[in-house]
Amino acid sequence: MQSIIDRQLHEAAVARNNAAQLAEEPFVVYGAHIFFNRRKELWCAILGHDLSDPVHVFGDSPAKAVEAFNAAWYKELTEEEIKLKERVE
């Protein structure tokens, strides 16, 4: 009986830890949004209101879009990406 309780306590602690880690992800911290883009037939995770906003990524599922958003948040731009961005602006 004690081993069952110990296992359940351990699982609860792991779940609490996972929830705390998720709460610190950029998607949550900065209040990004997710929607389905019918034209691309992909999910979009975005910080802002439309695709002209600088932080937006696509994924095959909501979870993949959020995962891509969090990865993109930390990704440094290459020199080529910076030059391309400067040309667009």
Indicate the topology:
Elements (H helix, E strand, L loop, with lengths): L1 H22 L2 H4 L3 E5 L4 E6 L7 E5 L2 H13 L4 H10 L1
Antiparallel strand pairs: 1-2, 2-3
Tags for this model:
three-stranded antiparallel sheet, 3 strands, 4 helices, elongated, 89 residues
Word description of this protein:
With 89 residues, the protein is of the alpha+beta class. It has one domain. Helix content is 55%, strand content 18%. It is built from four helices and three strands; from the N terminus they run ααβββαα. The chain has helices at residues 2-23, 26-29, 62-74, 79-88, and strands at residues 33-37, 42-47, 55-59. A three-stranded antiparallel sheet has the order 1-2-3. The longest helix has 22 residues, at 2-23. The mean pLDDT is 83.
